[in-house]
């Protein structure tokens, strides 16, 4: 297989598009060739003071509440690997890939995301039961958005 010709101008344009749209990654494909451009966001570190006042907890009742679990931080959440349009079935006349309550195996196709005219199957990253479908058919989705919950 001959080496892939690198289009430096296309990469620059994609990098500019990432910055302008505040996306973290973008991928284009033509035939069997793909270009993926990603950027990392800088994280600022804030340091706390070196000495904090000591507070006695001897007579404080334990009123700690359980952590609220949202779809975005749920341990069974399957998140979108890209920006695009979500489809719950292969064609409008066909049944959905999965429904709430279905049991799935790792690798089963759950959804399709159309991105840049390419249909990308989204597969289960673990086996389990679909407890929630968090998207509607034909809706736009963002990178990192929770799509389904598998428990």
Question: Can you put this structure into words, describing what you see?
Answer:
- The strands form three sheets. Strands 3-10-8-5 form a four-stranded antiparallel beta sheet, with no helix packed on it.
- A hairpin with a 2-residue loop joins strand 6 and strand 7 (118-123).
- Among the domains are: 8-38, no CATH class; 77-150, OB fold (Dihydrolipoamide Acetyltransferase, E2P), CATH 2.40.50.
- It is built from one helix and ten strands; from the N terminus they run αββββββββββ.
- 15% of the residues are buried.
- It has 151 residues and is mostly beta strands.
- Distance from N terminus to C terminus (CA atoms, Å) equals 43 Å
Task: Spell out the helices and strands N to C.
Answer: HEEEEEEEEEE
The profile of the biggest β sheet is: 4 strands, antiparallel
- Mean pLDDT comes to 79
The CATH architecture designation of the domain at 77-150 is Beta Barrel
List unreliable stretches of 5+ residues: none
Q: Any idea of the CATH class of the domain at 77-150?
A: Mainly Beta
Number of helices: 1
Strand numbers in spatial order across the main sheet: 3-10-8-5
Instruction: Count every beta strand, where a strand is a DSSP E run of 2 or more residues.
Output: 10
CATH topology of the domain at 77-150, by name, is OB fold (Dihydrolipoamide Acetyltransferase, E2P)
Strand fraction equals 25-35%
Bin the helical content: under 10%
Q: Estimate the global geometry from the Cα principal axes.
A: globular
What's the CATH H-level superfamily name of the domain at 77-150? RNA polymerase II/Efflux pump adaptor protein, barrel-sandwich hybrid domain
**Rg (CA only):** 22 Å
Secondary-structure content class:
mainly beta
């Amino acid at each position: 297989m001959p080496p892939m010709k690198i289009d430096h101008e296309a990469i620059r344009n994609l990098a500019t598009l990432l910055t302008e749209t505040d996306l973290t990654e973008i991928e284009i494909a033509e035939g069997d060739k793909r270009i993926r451009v990603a950027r990392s966001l800088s994280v600022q570190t804030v340091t706390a003071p070196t000495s904090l006042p000591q507070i006695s907890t001897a007579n404080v009742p334990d009123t700690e509440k359980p952590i609220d679990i949202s779809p975005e931080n749920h341990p069974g959440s399957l998140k979108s690997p890209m920006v695009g349009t979500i489809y719950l079935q292969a064609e409008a006349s066909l049944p959905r890939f999965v429904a709430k309550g279905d049991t799935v195996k790792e690798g089963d196709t759950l959804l399709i995301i159309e991105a840049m005219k390419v249909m990308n199957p989204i597969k289960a990253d673990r086996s389990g039961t679909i407890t929630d479908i968090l998207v509607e058919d034909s809706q736009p989705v963002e990178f990192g958005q929770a799509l389904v919950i598998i428990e």
